Amino acid sequence: MSYSRSPSPHPTGVGGWSSPGFTHGSGTSTPHSGLLSPTTLGPSGISWAAAKAKSDEVRGYPSFATKNNGFFSRSRRQLSATLPRFRLGSGSPNGYVDKDEFRRGHAFASTDGGRAWGFSRTVFRPRRSRLLLVLVVMLLGYTFLWTRIIEAYRRSPLGGGRKFVIILESNIEGGVMEWKGAREWAIERNSIWNKDHYAKRWGYELEVVNMLAKKRYSHEWRENWEKVDIIRETMRKYPDAEWFWWLDLNTWIMEYSYSLQDHVLNRLGEIAYRDINVYNPLGIHHPLTDPYLDQISLSPTGDNDTSSINFLLSQDCGGFNLGSFFIRRSLWADRLLDAWWDPVMYEQKHMEWEHKEQDALEYLYTTQPWIRSGVAFLPQRHINSFPPGACGDGDDPKIHYQEDEGDFLVNMAGCNFGRDCWGEMYRYREYSKWLNRTSWERLKERLNGLRDKLFPRVEETE
Amino acid sequence: MQFALPPRRVPITPVYGRSSRFSLQRRKQLKAIAILAVALLTIFFLLSQFFYTSTGTPAVSASISGVVIVTVLDRVRFTDEYIEKIVKNREDYAKRHGYTNFFANVTDYESSIGDSPQSWAIIPAVRHAMTSHPYSQYFFHLDAHALIMNPSKSLGSHVLDKQRLESLMLREVSVVPPDSIIKTFSHVHPEDVDLIITTDNEDMNPGSFILRQGDFAKFFLDLWFDPLYRSYNFAKAETHVLDHIVQWHPTILARLALLPQQTINAYSKDCSAAAANGIYKDGDFVIRFLGCDTDTKRNCEKEMEPYYRLWQTKLKAE
């Protein structure tokens, strides 16, 4: 044993230990120090009783908190708790001890120990320690900072995230019509958190807009119409942004891993349809046939160029749905927002237009050819899945959220009318949380599942 | 065990020596890497800037040029003789300046107009002209009851030329007389103008206007022609709707140039609606007989006759 000059911890040495994950066998060897383990077992390791206690802890009994507070037991607990594999052989407490002894035996074998020492010598030699430091820093940086770096990049002008703004309505009516209760607050808080989480991840801007009932709109009975003004204001506020994604408050983004670019806007050619006859619940006459119109206006699919799409929405069973839609900054959009608000049309139709601005858009789409050439539709479930209960109780796979197909967003449309908004949102929130669990959680889950399959809970039945 | 730490001096010197040699090489490498990285970043940045498409530019291609004169004729109510005079007048003018004529009939658009007044036909007619002449840039709609009295003036030099337009455009003027609170913008540049029009004493008058081909034109015409406007029973049909949309929709106002009436829309002395200086004087570009077809006391054919003769003698004199 002539390596005492090394500053490195030696598994069997007196000097200390490295963290259990790094060197082979270190977890088992630390008790040799005799200082850190409060057990009185001495250097030889674990007795049957201690092993059984630990085995019990692994199964989740909280008794460990009072006894075996030492390092050994703590690290043992971590190791075993995070690695279910460890317990594969532990159908009985004997298995546990056997395995442990088996491994310890290996650690003490001369070849194995020698190799471990050789490795640590290269790593821990004074000059190499810098390398180790760099490696450790890189590892830490990767685990803790990498996502932040990626997010910062996406937010930067290079990343392109700033070209997208999510507009989320909130504070509907401002609680003027009825007091906002705990559920309303919860819906608002959760919905905003959901969009914020998504926007942060992809570097998008989130604009939470206040739908407070304003006299300006109320005196004309124009609630909901402020959408138009709000989009215009938001466009002014974010001069760099290109696409604006409107979301109603009662929506939940289920899949955080879908970027707007990859999921929607970069593949409009494949997913968007411009010929409304593909799905036409309103029975809008399309294409137009007036002989004085130009080729593009007469064509069922416009100019077939995705770059001319300025408005993207989906249709539900009742026609256009503006719970989740995209509008692109363009002259076309300016004109649409301008025409949308026209008072003469409104004056004549506001009694008929039950869905307010949504009906107005349907009307404009029907009567004004220039609008058709800028509008494209997405299959509903691509950006706007409905929960069961919206659009009929059925489970239409075109309309309703399908649990195993990775739908992007759920819009709890119409939940104010006889359904439970908060209940639905809670359910989808939890489901989305489960869908977006980390790979580590997935692994644990799978291993646990495997264990349960291999060793059905016999302990409980005993 | 005794020499837990090595004697300091001996190993340190070679370490320094080695490290300096090492860092010299290393520095070169680092420099190269840094230069490469900066270059890559620059290229990437430039490319991303280059491929970033601005969304604010109008989509008017440069290959479009030429002028089309749009006239909507009512062959049912008026004699062929009268119609022929109008057509002759337009054809002569088009031939002089290399323009194209587009004659439409009110009856062509009956199915689109429905129950609304026939005067609405001018809107689909202009849209139709644009469809038929997709490579022409300007569309000059002139009412049928009008004559081009000074055919030597080309539209280009008389109105469309940038400097000329800049000098003619009325800024900060009420768009609907006499005192609409909506006024023309002060900062509109001639190159942004898509619609050139005039007001008379009462309204913005669609009997004579110039519209540039492009997305704006489609938007403007489609909006103007919306069925809800047609069914609203505006007293002056399309004229009042024009007043309405220009005042309520800034996207239209921002592309509009308002000219003094006599430049493209002088009225004959029988018309009551002319603005100050709006009455036809010798040398003016066009004369219109506004209202001759709606006022039962007037007769378009009789009113036009003296001016038609005047135009003919002018032609002979040249």
UniProtKB/TrEMBL annotation, chain A:
Gene Ontology terms describing biological process: protein N-linked glycosylation
PANTHER family recorded: ALPHA-1,6-MANNOSYLTRANSFERASE MNN10-RELATED, ALPHA-1,6-MANNOSYLTRANSFERASE MNN11-RELATED
Sorted alphabetically, which InterPro entries does this protein's record hold? Glyco_trans_34 (IPR008630), Nucleotide-diphossugar_trans (IPR029044)
Span list, region Disordered: 1-37
Provide the species name. Answer: Aspergillus saccharolyticus JOP 1030-1
Q: Is this entry keyworded Glycosyltransferase?
A: yes
Per the record, the similarity remark reads: Belongs to the glycosyltransferase 34 family.
Q: Name one GO molecular function term.
A: glycosyltransferase activity
Taken from the UniProt entry, a GO cellular component term is: Golgi membrane
Signal peptide range in chain numbering: none
What domain of life is recorded for the organism? Eukaryota
* The keyword Transmembrane helix is annotated on this UniProt entry: yes
Compositional bias of kind Polar residues: 25-37
Q: Which residues cross the membrane?
A: 131-149
A Pfam family matched in the record:
Glyco_transf_34
Swiss-Prot/TrEMBL keywords = Glycosyltransferase, Membrane, Transferase, Transmembrane, Transmembrane helix
Quote the protein name from its UniProt record. Answer: Alpha-1,6-mannosyltransferase subunit
From TrEMBL, chain B:
User: Which GO molecular function annotations are given, in alphabetical order?
Assistant: alpha-1,6-mannosyltransferase activity
Q: Which GO terms describe its biological process?
A: protein N-linked glycosylation
Record's GO cellular component, any one? mannan polymerase complex
* TM annotation in the entry: 30-52
Pfam families for this protein: Glyco_transf_34 (PF05637)
Q: Which InterPro entries match?
A: Glyco_trans_34, Nucleotide-diphossugar_trans
Does the entry feature the keyword Cell wall biogenesis/degradation, yes or no? Answer: no
Q: Is the Nucleotide-binding keyword given for this protein? A: no
Q: Which UniProt keywords apply?
A: Glycosyltransferase, Membrane, Transferase, Transmembrane, Transmembrane helix
Give the family, as the similarity comment puts it: Belongs to the glycosyltransferase 34 family.
PANTHER family per the record? Answer: ALPHA-1,6-MANNOSYLTRANSFERASE MNN11-RELATED
Q: What is this protein called?
A: Alpha-1,6-mannosyltransferase subunit
Q: What is the lineage of its organism?
A: Eukaryota, Fungi, Dikarya, Ascomycota, Pezizomycotina
